[in-house]
Amino acid sequence: MATFVFSPPWFQGFDALFEFVSLIIAFVISYYSYRLFRITEQKKYHIMAYGFFFLFLALFIKITTNLQIYFEIVSSLTASVPLTFFIYAAGYFLHRFLFLLGLLCLFNIAVDIPDRRANIIIAVLLFVATFFSHSVFLIFHFIAALFLIIIFWHFMHNYQKKKTPASEIVALSFFLLLLSQFFFLFIPVTNELYVLGEVSQFFGFLLLLLNHVVILKK
Amino acid sequence: MNVRRSKLEIIHDMLQAIQDKNGKIKPTHLLYKSNLSHQKMRQSLEELVEKQMVREEKSKYGAYILITEQGLKFLQEYRRMKEFTESFGLT
Questions:
Q1: CB 3.0-4.6 Å disulfide test: which of A19, A27, A40, A93 passes with A56?
Q2: A151-167: per-residue pLDDT in tens?
């Protein structure tokens, strides 16, 4: 039997709220990156825009799937258990795949992969890992954590070079996003770690928003 | 090591040079400050005038180039873009 919901009952709904704010932030950063791409025509801004847009989509799908489960929307509309199961499974698969695609784009910023074919191979491997694995949940968070280690290392290195408050905020935000994945990995120990993971992820995105607001105020 | 500036950087450097001179500069000073050939500077200047980021003014003291509101907005937007780029290590 598949487990879809890891949130403790008292936290259900709050995770959707946190993720809603996070997806707005992801969209704002994606949009601004795209604007810079239109002005400069430089690929790195385009990749960044795609990265945060995939994260936005992933969070949107997770929220809608979670809310369907929390409020039993699909199961009340259809008497078919397999259909209900399929809708939930499809939702979570899309969330995981899109989230990893987003991280792959940000990974490209940290580690410049010039050959597009390499990125295609990685994307296909991500698809296989998230679709065919028996332990989809653990595999997803493990891969996300791997990507985020490299991404965080890049931003930490950037902060050590630049020593600006903005670069420090970005490094810290991705540290929190990395931390959230470690919390999620150990959910089988206790569901309360889901709460810590969601809160850590939320504060990670909030710091990105803070950075963006500070930049726009200049 | 010579690093070639992008078109955007050239526009920024020219506008910044004008702003540093309280928004008004002689063409010869701009040529010196922008570190461009005469032909390149003229081309860039024509583009700036076309985009309404600068305007040219002739007085009895000579010709001047003035930065416009549009030009000042560009400088502000460029600063934001630079900060965003540096914060994410996109340089």
A1: A27
A2: 999 999 999 999 999 99
